[in-house]
Specification:
Helix content is 77%, strand content 0%. It has 20 helices and no strands. Helix 2 runs antiparallel to helix 9 and helix 5 crosses helix 15.
Length: 416
């Protein structure tokens, strides 16, 4: 920091500007942040569904097919974020217009606060059940404690997220994998034999849809983190590799939980294996690494909408998510899955906007358009199609519609 600015408070999260060179980070740090982001307990639910509906080889094919689609989507967003140094919300200002960006910011903030609340309950409810006999008092104490800790790590920004990721990622990966291997060894036959009890009611394409849908909404926020990568190559590779490894691990955890105990979380497997305290540690850290990223994203989105600093918006998001967590867990998961389909059109338009109008992103553009109605229409129509068209993969259907709307808009604008 120069002498002229030594008394100026620096926003280490660069909420309202591109991340400068001095704020960029290397591959290992970016990989750990992105890997921690993908350690999402709800992805284990998809693993359970895959194990219930596919044999082992079908499971692997769905994992590879869906993982490739998710990797391409998040990789492109990761590239754009790292190349420009801009958050999702700053990119949205360029693509949707200053006021138009409020739509994407509201959508991502709403879904991430929702999943934050669900994540807290996913920790507090089972732990209270195991430790305190389903005591409501204990459950709410755990909800508040988890909410405070996870909100604090998001409040202090990217450096705090980095510390949590460096601690949690190795522990979750190693302890979870050890428990998974122990469970397989205790089962009847090989892992292929254990998957063979599946009902076979799911197709590979349907399974790939579950893989993509499990984290495509969170993946839309990828630029919020890859903008800190030292260059576009680092951000892109870290994202693609982390998403594939992290999501695959979560799906395997969920699949083994279903086969071994009929559940959907590695926590249940570890409890059955009498690894009680390790189970609580893995469950808590696994949720923490996703929840702090989700709240960080929500804070950036609300800051864009209300023109406030990120930290107060993180606190507000954390309070809402914590207070509503149990209600969200029991009443809102279905709605959150519907909302997940609304975000891929946003990501598609951000990518198209960058590659079709690079000069607007790579040079200072102080005057932003107010609203790009074609971009807004693309998100709305894409979300409708993704939710109502029961063919193919929902998120891809939504992205195709959004892409068509945006490209038509670009053609119309160029003729003016």
């Amino acid at each position: 920091m120069s002498k002229n600015t030594k008394n100026t408070t620096v926003d280490i999260d660069y909420a309202n500007q591109a991340v400068p060179k001095e704020g960029r980070k290397g591959f290992l740090t970016m990989f750990m942040i992105m890997l921690g982001f993908t350690f999402f307990s709800a992805s284990m639910w998809a693993g359970q569904q895959l194990a219930a509906g596919l044999d082992f080889w079908g499971f692997l094919k769905s994992l590879l097919f869906g993982g490739a689609i998710l990797g391409l989507y998040t990789g492109l967003l990761g590239y754009v974020g790292a190349k420009t140094g801009m958050s999702m919300d700053l990119l949205a200002q360029k693509a949707f217009g200053e006021k138009g960006s409020y739509l994407s910011s509201a959508m991502i903030s709403f879904t991430q606060i929702g999943w934050f609340g669900v994540g807290i309950a996913m920790f507090a409810i089972p732990v209270a059940g195991e430790l305190f006999g389903d005591s409501k008092t204990a459950m709410w104490a755990l909800v508040i404690g988890a909410g405070v800790c996870m909100t604090a790590s998001a409040y202090f920004g990217i450096d705090s997220l980095t510390v949590i990721s460096y601690i949690a990622v190795p522990l979750v990966a190693v302890l979870g994998t050890v428990a998974m291997v122990m469970a397989i060894r205790q089962g009847n036959g090989t892992i292929v034999d254990q998957f063979a009890v599946s009902s076979g009611s799911l197709t590979v394409v349907g399974g790939a849809g579950l893989v993509v849908g499990s984290f495509v909404s969170g993946g839309t926020a990828t630029p919020n983190f890859t903008r800190f990568a030292k260059d576009a190559k680092t951000g892109t590779i870290a994202t693609v590799v982390a998403f594939f490894i992290g999501n695959s691990l979560m799906f395997f955890f969920g699949a083994i939980a279903y086969i071994f105990v009929g559940g959907n979380d590695i926590f249940e497997v570890m409890i059955r294996l009498n690894l009680f305290y390790m189970a609580i540690l893995v469950l808590g850290l696994n949720i923490w690494t996703t929840n702090d990223n989700a709240l960080y994203t929500a804070g950036l989105g609300l800051a864009n909408i209300f023109h406030q600093k990120k930290k107060p918006m993180v606190l507000l998001s954390g309070i809402i998510g914590t207070v509503a967590s149990v209600w969200l867990y029991y009443n809102f998961c279905g709605w959150l899955n519907i909302l997940n389909c609304t975000l891929p059109p946003v990501g598609m338009i951000l990518v198209l906007a960058y590659f079709m109008n690079k000069e607007d992103f790579e040079t200072d553009q102080p005057k932003l358009k107010t609203i790009d109605w074609f971009a807004v229409a693309g998100v709305i129509l894409g979300a409708i199609v993704a939710n109502l068209l029961h063919w193919g993969i929902a998120s891809i259907n939504g992205m195709v519609v959004a892409a068509v709307c945006y490209c038509v808009g670009q053609a119309v604008n160029k003729r003016k």
